[in-house]
């Protein structure tokens, strides 16, 4: 399949690019600089230095390719991009895999594809875009990743210490985060693309739901782990970001395994923080 990929130089998108190439797909990606274009080419893709907000370019690529994976999801991008894809793909067999996020479901100890949404302010902008995707007659799948980790990057890097500097929790650290390794996530995007469901939705979570305190302990490597009040977290991180990180969220990811044959294989986030890619 010839796949149009957005966000190919980003954290999630670069993993999706590697997975698509590994599965024998041809990839054309829009990037914003020659440096990012080189990264795409080095990973086996074809890069165009263009802007994903250029509707004319997007329409041409949608016509020339067999499906699209959109990982460059952002408030200033999604409304026009989503509308353009849905218009072009209406009534066709071409698959559109869109990126959501776990924060959409708010506080929940059992997040599934049927859970009600209750997004914090940080990600409330996703709601209208996802509704448009799900209401269309195009072949669409939304992938909602948990807290993404791996390769020493992502939100969990905030809990990494060399053992000499204290690690500050978000709140008291009792809240749980539902997690997914970025390379397992890349594989799931490929499965979603190849399955090409009509109104598919996937909670991308491995079933590992550690507490923030457990994550901080793993990443501190013997340094003190310091709790703080909710108000202190809001002041340090900004209210909208802190409110999202304070959510208590647990998910099993059962649908991804049973319906898509997904088999996550990478170490847990606690293991990665303690002995893996986050070790300094």
From TrEMBL:
A Pfam family it matches: NAD_binding_10
Chain ranges of the NAD(P)-binding domain: 7-150
Protein's recorded name: NAD-dependent epimerase/dehydratase family protein
Organism: Curtobacterium citreum
